[in-house]
Write a structure and sequence with these properties.
Elements (H helix, E strand, L loop, with lengths): L1 H5 L14 H29 L4 H37 L3 H38 L4 H15 L2 H16 L3 H25 L4 H23 L10 H5 L3 H32 L4 H17 L1 H19 L3 H33 L7 H34 L3 H26 L4 H25 L9
Helix pairs in contact: 2-3, 2-7, 2-8, 2-11, 2-12, 3-4, 3-5, 3-6, 3-10, 3-11, 3-12, 4-5, 4-6, 4-10, 5-8, 6-8, 7-8, 10-15, 11-14, 12-13, 12-14, 13-14, 14-16, 15-16
């Protein structure tokens, strides 16, 4: 029954279906579980830090908006390398796929170290610039959490790069197991940090740092295994290959700009949220964790699009790429609707685990109702299909569409609904839906126009 529902009307010959339904299932299910495990780190932080008081959870939620900006840049760089490596796999060029992997790791590590130094040196200035109007105890929590989180940037960069390459090889189970270990370390560390050592914000920051470092080292070790179809070598890591780096950055830079501006817009909106008081800041922080959890299936489908569409395009088979675009989009809609509905039903029960006032809990439920309803309808095209276009090499259009919808539309809508109409954080959520609607329309227009088939990366 499900196999019939996901099958596009226009069929593709079996010998050209490089990913059977079984292969797609083995690719997607670990991606979803991995995404779930990664997001549990954020949920664990906000859940346990809620017992350290409203100021602590407000500080963690605000900093997460800022630190996610850097995490998204690392993810964008990793996605750029994954697209290039995936297309080389489609061409059956194993040598260049390994070179792309090595150069990706070298570049992301250097960039992450630079970002870490900048944050550590400008921590006080940056936080005061963005969140200067929050209460003093909230700012203290922000300072502590941001300083510790910055040390994990190189580990995050290495982990994201290795994970992206393993997804390209469709070895998603490996990443799933490493994510499981990372979460166990983080949750156990959070428990001791909050309830045993009573370390407050630092009690959730250090376990995240430790778990990310361990996960990065494990994934890096796997990448040196020559039995993998894509593997790194010290020789390629030590050399600078201009052409290969240019190919990676041709995808990564527009993707980084897109993701970076998306997160900057969210940071700017956090400054607006900071005007609404501690109760609404806390509700927004908890809702953000829930939103990420509710969107996990749709977000997890992005790497699946990169792996499948990248290999089709690398083999210069655009008929197969179109077939899998439609098939993966159907899977995204079905899974996204089911998961959003399920998570919305369990939110009231999950909230009982939090030590929050009833006013905050009620607001969280309203925010999640808005998010989950429209996430399942608009985000499969706005985000998953957009990733498919990017995997084909159509990176600038997706960047421009994202900049227009997020930086211009979402910010403008947020000021109008949140401040002018005085809807508070509810207005911010309504503005988010407007952003999705605009981007979804732009991406669908591009896909049906067929222009995405005119680009070449390798």
């Amino acid at each position: 029954m499900i196999a019939q529902l996901i099958e596009p009307k226009v069929k593709l010959d079996k010998d050209r279906q490089i990913f059977s339904n079984l292969k797609l299932r083995n690719l997607i299910i670990p991606l979803v579980i991995e995404q779930l495990l990664v997001l549990l780190v954020g949920v664990s932080d906000t859940l346990m830090v809620s017992y350290a008081g409203p100021a602590a959870i407000s500080g963690v939620s605000l900093v997460n908006q800022l630190s996610t900006l850097f995490i998204m840049i690392f993810a964008a760089l990793a996605a750029g390398g994954a697209v290039v490596a995936s297309q080389y796999l489609g061409k059956k060029d194993q040598e260049n796929s390994g070179l792309a992997a090595s150069q990706l790791l070298m570049v992301t590590t250097l960039i992450s170290i630079l970002m870490m130094v900048v944050i550590l040196m400008g921590n006080h200035f940056l936080l005061n610039l963005v969140f200067g109007r929050v209460d003093g105890d909230v700012m203290d929590a922000c300072m502590t959490y941001m300083a510790i989180s910055a040390f994990s940037f190189p580990a995050l960069a290495v982990y994201n790069s290795c994970a992206g390459l393993f997804r390209t090889m469709a070895k998603t189970k490996t990443i799933m197991y490493v994510s499981l270990l990372m979460n166990v370390i983080n949750v156990v560390g959070n428990y001791f940090g909050i309830f045993v050592f009573h370390a407050g914000v630092a009690g959730v920051a250090y376990p995240s740092l430790i778990s990310r470092c361990i996960a990065a080292l494990i994934m890096l070790g796997f990448m040196f295994n020559k039995s993998n179809v894509i593997h790194v070598s010290m020789r390629n890591l030590k050399q600078w290959h201009n052409k290969m780096i240019a190919r990676i950055l041709s995808v990564a830079i527009p993707n980084s700009i897109e993701n970076g501006l998306f997160q900057l817009a969210k940071v700017a909106l956090s400054s607006i949220v900071a005007l609404f008081g501690t109760a609404q800041i806390a509700a927004n922080g908890v809702a953000q964790s829930f939103w990420a959890m509710a969107a996990l299936f749709i977000m997890a489908m992005g790497p699946a699009f990169i792996t499948v569409i990248g290999q089709c395009v690398g083999a210069n088979d655009y008929e197969a790429a179109t077939y899998y675009m439609k098939k993966l989009l159907r899977i995204t809609y079905m899974g996204g609707i089911a998961w959003n509905a399920f998570f919305l039903m369990i939110i009231p029960f999950v909230l009982k685990l939090y030590d929050l006032p009833q006013e905050t809990i009620s607001l969280v439920i309203i925010l999640c109702l808005i998010h989950n309803t429209f996430n399942s309808v608009l985000c499969p095209t706005a985000f998953a299909l957009s990733t498919g276009l990017r995997a084909a090499g159509d990176v600038k259009y997706t960047m421009y569409a994202s900049i227009f919808s997020t930086v211009i539309c979402r910010v403008a809508f947020s000021v109008f609904f949140g401040v002018y109409l005085n809807f508070g954080v509810t207005g911010i959520a309504i503005a988010m839906v407007g952003d999705w609607a605009v981007k979804s329309t732009l991406i669908m227009k591009r896909y049906h126009g067929g222009k995405w088939q005119d680009f070449r990366i390798v």
